[in-house]
Amino acid sequence: MVRFSDLGIGSDLVQTLSDEGISEPFEVQIAAIPSAMEGRDICCRAPTGSGKTLAFGLPLIERTPRAEPNRPTSLILTPTRELAEQIRNVLGPLAGNYGMDVLSVYGGTSYGKQRKGLDRGVEILVACPGRLLDLMEKRALSLEDVGIVVLDEADRMADMGFMEPVCDIIESCSNKPQMILFSATLDDDVSRLVDMYQDDPEIIGVGPEEISMDSMEHLFWKVKPYMKTEVSVKSVKRAGRSIIFCRTRRGVDRLGDEMEDDGIELSTLHGGLNQRQRDRAMSKFTSGRSMVLIATDVAARGIDIEGINCVIHYDPPDDAKVYKHRSGRTARAGSTGVVISLVKGNEKRRYDRIQKAVGIKKRFSDPHPDDLEKKEFKLVEPRSKRVKNKHQQRSQRRDSGRRERTSTGRPDYSKRGKRKKRYSKSNDSPRNWGEENNERRNRRNSRNQKRGGRGNNRGNRGNNRGNRGNDRRRSER
Predict the structure, then answer these.
(1) I want to staple 41 with a disulfide (CB 3.0 to 4.6 A). Which of 67, 198, 218, 293 is the partner?
(2) Which range has the worst mean pLDDT, 31-45, 107-121, 254-268, 450-464?
(3) Is the dihedral of CA 89, 48, 72, 96 positive or negative?
């Protein structure tokens, strides 16, 4: 059995990995780590979820020197904010044990917080190309000390139009850095990066060259537009944990509102959300506090979420490549899954072309959600709700020995011996404090009247004496 120590990783980092429950390296780590530790350029084809974050992250932690303020020494470029956060969450705790900082920078968040992080000094910088170029133009950092550059999901960056910004960033590194490139596919744009910026790279291939469609059950259901939401609700109730892809942000929000009305716990994700909202949506889904993620294609790549049973193409993908990447969110790590395409009448030709391109041939049929395999999903209760329930239970135990209360909220003294009444001036008292005093005064006056008005008569006699004395003094004058 191969161990991390056999790959050149130091004993301290091996022990840290062991404490985290990571003892055996994955295939991509076995293939990539030795060459990365030697300082060689690497071109690796590996699918999402294969363990590539540690494949490039562990050599970075071992080989990255200390950084001065605003001058990071290692750089990881990613296409999406979610992937940048995922990498930071994996590498941050490991690097922190060695006094190294990992910072992620991307759009949709405050410049101030990111600039403060750079001012403190960051060894490993995880960045999306657009925000990194903005910070460079603002002179918030320099890449002159960067000795290692990692391109993660290089083909996705090419699809999103980041090739030119990536080239500008690489050329901003004064010394020629070690280049480590990871990609799910090695197409023309990625090959151009290899030719331009890598010297005699180590070529590594892990897993199939294309996302396998064989491990998934593909269903193409003919639906009317008004049926799509109903079919989606019934499908996820049977399949359990699912991802639904829509074409537009508005479509995501509309479908989310409709499915919430049907009692589905869900998260929505699209580019119109700010970073805090996106982080909250991903955290809710990955932690099991929601069963369904409704997203645009921003979530089709770079997000590694285990246990997805079903993928629904609510809106058709643009092409076969997008169909593969969407569908690839299920049937991962040897598991199986179902992929459902909701096909309107005018979309059959598009799906015919997609089927031919991905190498499958399926008939278009009427929807039958009840025929899907039933998968159980236990929703995780939010922590705030758990704390609230705990407090409620504690209050119930505390109140169980107290006296029953009347409809006015005051203790009922008819069943047991009386106890001293207590009144409070607080707002949560059964009645307002001023009203309580008025009631006492009225009761006292009522008692005096029943006694013959003696209290009032005394007051009248006193007033009469005072009047007679005043009259006598006036007559003497």
Answers:
(1) 198
(2) 450-464
(3) positive
Q: How many distinct structural domains can be found in the chain? A: 2
Determine, yes or no, domain membership for 167: yes
Domain finish residue from 311, 345, 371: 371
Which region among 54-63, 132-141, 449-458 has the lowest average model confidence (pLDDT)? 449-458
> Domain residues for 274?
216-371
Say which residue the tokens 């990536």 belong to.
166
User: Does residue 422 carry a pLDDT above 50?
Assistant: no
22 φ, ψ to 5°?
-110, 110
Torsion angle (degrees, nearest 10) of CA 441, 445, 448, 454:
100
H/E element, 338: strand 337-343
321 and 345 part of one domain: yes
Strand partners, 43: 181, 203
Tokens 């994700």 belong to 269
Using alpha carbons, select from 477, 234, 182, 181 the residue that is nearest to residue 370: 234
pTM score of the predicted model: 0.66
Residue 422 located in a structural domain: no
Which residues have CB under 8 Å from 271's CB, separation 6+?
A: 249, 296, 298
Final residue of a structural domain among 317, 339, 371: 371
CA 249, 253, 258, 264 torsion-angle sign: positive
> Within this chain, do residues 193 and 55 fall inside the same structural domain, yes or no?
yes
Q: Which two tokens stand for residue 325?
A: 């990447």
Q: How far apart are CA 75 and CA 118, in angstroms?
A: 13
Residue 244 and residue 120 share a domain: no
Kindly report the backbone phi and psi dihedral angles of residue 313, in degrees, each rounded to the nearest multiple of 5, phi listed first.
-85, 90
Alpha carbons 120 and 100: distance in angstroms, whole number: 11
433 occurs within a structural domain = no
Task: Locate all alpha helices (DSSP H) within 64-162, ordered by sequence.
Answer: 81-96, 111-120, 129-137, 154-159
Is residue 423 domain-resident?
no
Whether 198 and 222 map to the same domain: the answer is no
Both 103 and 220 in a single domain? no
Cβ 56 vs Cβ 62: under 8 Å: no
Token pair of 439 as six digits = 């009631």
- pLDDT above 70 for 41: yes
**CA-CA-CA-CA torsion sign (44, 189, 184, 273):** positive
Please indicate, yes or no, whether residues 31 and 58 belong to a single structural domain of this protein: yes
Same domain, 82 and 226: no
CA dihedral 202, 207, 210, 215 (to 10 degrees): -170
Look up the CATH number of the domain holding residue 38: 3.40.50.300
Residues 44 and 182 in one domain: yes
